[in-house]
Amino acid sequence: MMTLKVNGQDNQIDADPDTPLLYVLRDDLKLNAAKFGCGLGQCGSCTVIVDGKAVLSCVTPLVLLKGKQVTTLEGLGTVSAPAPIQRAFMEEQAAQCGYCIAGMMMRAQALLLRNPKPTDAEIRAELQPNLCRCGTHMRILRAVHRAARLMDTADASANARSGQ
Amino acid sequence: MNAPVILDRRRVLQGGGALIVSFSLGRALAQEGSPAGAAPKRPGSLAVAPYLDSWLRIDADGRITAFTGKAELGQGFKTAFQQIAAEQLDVPFEAIHVVTADTQLTANEGYTAGSHSMQDSGTAILNAAAQVRELLIAQAAGRLGLAAENLRTENGAVIAPDGRRLTYGELVAADLLHVQAQPQSKLKDPASFKIMGHAVPRVDIPAKVTGGEAYVQDMRLSGMVHARVVRPPSYGAQLVECDSAAVERLPGVLKVVRDGNFLAVIANKEFQAIKAMNALAAAAKWKESQNLPKQDDLLNVLTGLPSQDSIIFERSDPSVSGQKTLEATYTRPYQSHGSIGPSCAVAHFVDDAMTVWTHTQGVYPDRQAIAEMLRMSPASVRLIHVEGSGCYGHNGADDVAADAALIARALPGRPVRVQWMREQEHAWEPFGPAMVTKLKASIDGGGRIADWNFAVWSNTHSMRPGNAGTLLAAQHMAQAFAVPPPKPLPLPEGGGDRNAIPLYTFANARVVHHFIAAMPLRISAMRGLGAYHNVFSIESFMDELAGLAGADPVEFRLRHLEDPRGRDVVEKAAQEFGWKQDRKPPPGRGYGFAFARYKNLAAYCAIASEVEVNSETGRARLLRAVAAVDSGQVVNPDGLTNQIEGAIMQSMSWTLYESVSFDDTRITSIDWQTYPILRFDAVPDRIDVHIINRPGQPFLGSGETGQGPAAASIANAIAHATGKRLRDLPLTRKRIKDAIDA
User: Fold this and answer.
1) A35, B677: Cβ pair inside 8 Å?
2) Are the Cβ atoms of B389 and A133 closer than 8 angstroms?
3) Mean pLDDT per 10-residue run, chain A (164 residues)?
4) Between the CA of residue A107 and those of A44, A50, A121, A124, B188, what are the distances in Å?
């Protein structure tokens, strides 16, 4: 039994310590967003955020996550209260089949957390590990740019409210 | 659904005077005419499922459901169908709920393939909705004692001039919609459209960007367990020994399933199943055979196999002859669908009935195949389509559905989820077939193509289910089902010869299809079928011939193109790209152009592109592409743009990078390292899609129209940039570098 913090909540996990995080998220915690794509760390569809950094959950064993904070796409927002990155992907209609999209969004989110105003080249370089087969790349790039603007506006209005 | 109640038409007609009114309604805006004297055909899939309530149902509380036998694959038609139904019924977009392919609920529309969804199912829903609206008006006319032409519809109700209002829910009686559709419908004037023709956000995207349950991979049924298959290491391998006792004792393992060469393991949790799969694979001993052809000699492999040859097009004008002649051979390797999510299915066997949730493209044909494999009656097998990762044709979807069914039968009462591993998807999916084309043409004194010879060698491009023998599980069982004999797909759509007949007009022309029955590698339908390579060949060769004639490539195409809608997309793409004769690109760059009408009967697409080639490394990068597309009446412009953008990006990946690799025994491209595809460093700076809308015209399927033109446009731009013509796909960095250095 191990305690794993996911989306701000502690969970008691009964799984072998070598179990990749992906299966804990999907199988034990019933979370959908992180996807099995390759199990080899080659495609990025399983990407989640661990302590602020994008991590490939299919090759990260449970044992390495003791005391860490895991964030999945579910932890960012909901359909009725979407996070800026989610709103941006909806507004840009940045999906076809969408299977890769959760991983794309989490990697983009990690980038925006450490670099709120990335250049186009920085976004492309960041997303290099993630594969999309439908060819939605142009929309994904536009959505990440839009998310950066939305987060900037959200920060500005939050600062205004708090009198900063 | 219970077996449909077959109502006698006369009884229906006698039963309600209102219905008679509807059947006599006008034909002014009918989408499809019919030749005089012939029995008029019902439009789209109404021809195969004529009852209106196969397509639309209205509940007493006013809820409206639209049904389609097609499967949403990420192409976005579920949203488009919702737009169509809402528009023609005069209800808000949100009032419609769309149910997709399910053998118990929807019509049998065969496969979701060939860019047919809008044309078949969209057209059926369009006409069914228009006719349902007329039935509701007629019903209201009867109730109100008013003439139908004095009534109008708005927001889900029929409204009389005096303001009286009857909602659809109030009007719809038991069997009102259980009538056969008429061949022609009173469609709304496109000028009045409020929902069709407008960009509507896709209904599936919110769940996909918030972690909602969106895919069959996300299903978690009560009591569900996980299974994994251990596939043979190569085609035809025989399982000679497998001691599974140790595997059965592993934590969580419920059962090892073995049937001949079919081997699988079921466990409580998913990672337990994967660990057990690895242990089982290690315990299995296989006898393999060295049957695969030489990967780097596909030209001679394919043209050396026995073929059935047919002349599929011939035109002769002895008064015209050429002066300068050119010959060229183009090749395409085997290529992978390469779905990002490996194929997955959930099956549940209860009380001798099998239910399978699957991302198959054809619930009915796959049900037929699975029922045959299980030796069950199709009536006791239900297939329900649930979205999966994009498939781009016949990938592992049907096979994993069969795997799940076979495994679930061994564990009655428990839903079983099976997902393939990455290396299984890459090694066992049916590939897009390799192809060879040989072209020869000559130019007359006036710079026109005087004669054109085109020959294509390829397999069938569909080994889709219908027969159990198409399914891996059925091929691997002890009482194995034989692979059915492959057949060429008939023209006009064709398979290996899809788009082999040029849309251009030449005085003399001859097109030959060499159909190869033997399939050294497992193959089936991949987006565009033969059109990808045939258009690549034709449009590359058109550029070569334009060079021979000293003509501009765009002008040279227009010189031979009579189809006015074809000319429109060519001119639109050229204009929006800024195409100019003799325009000099910056050093290291080239411009390319290509055009096709998919299958010569679906959407038109022209693509201009700018490519940069690094002469040191041979690396080619598409910088920008401008596409013009004519899909007839457009329903969701943003959805169409998304499809064309995707087609260009995917075709670019196929064209620059992709080929299946194998040795004499095994497939060796088994993951994304060994089968590299497009990554973000190769993504263009921009892609622009320009739609030529044709209000009131039939829908023309668009999902595959970009594949061929994108390939040739990029190849032509590379030739323009380097002065070297590459004719063997993929146009890899090494091949470009070798050509530059040659």
Assistant:
1) no
2) yes
3) 96 96 98 98 98 98 97 98 98 98 98 98 98 98 98 77 57
4) 8, 11, 15, 11, 46
